[in-house]
Amino acid sequence: MILPIVAYGDPVLRKKAKPITKDYPELETLIENMHETMYGAFGVGLAAPQIGLPIRLFLVDTSPFAEDESFSEEEQEALSSFKRVFINAQIIEEEGDEWAFNEGCLSIPDVREDVFRQPKIKIEYQDENFDTHVEEFDGLIARVIQHEYDHIEGILFTDKLSSFKKRLIKGKLSNISKGKIKIDYRMRFPAQKKKR
Ligand code: NI
Q: Domain 5-185 - what CATH class?
């Protein structure tokens, strides 16, 4: 089932998300629905707060980037098969010189800006079977994880822009929160919340 994606301006996107346990109700269905929602919107990642749940769960599938020839063949190969569910993730370390990449977000349609992030991360998380992993990632895979991880910390990529850039997109963000935007996937806007 495709779930509506929560738009910029909804307070759920600003909450620090809570850890979950194995017995979280209908977790398997939730993960399935989140995958369907992410693919339906052509996203490479989706975090639970984006479908209205302030829990520490996000998905990443970088395969759409595999066709992008601005990456090395080796990186394209890695991107093509990277699909993961992250539960209760904690970034333990981030390192390296920050690099810029043009990011977007399904909760903030039509806004794309260069965001600076460190290239390497070490992260502890549980997979969909609640097995714990500690892994290191770099490059674009790390970046997508960082973006989704920010969501479960209540942070959006637009927070990371210069105050000049923030001023430039202020009107756009306000329109998004009011639902004054054309989108081709299901969204839920803060103003409509009470009617549901
Ligand atoms: Ni996002």
A: alpha beta
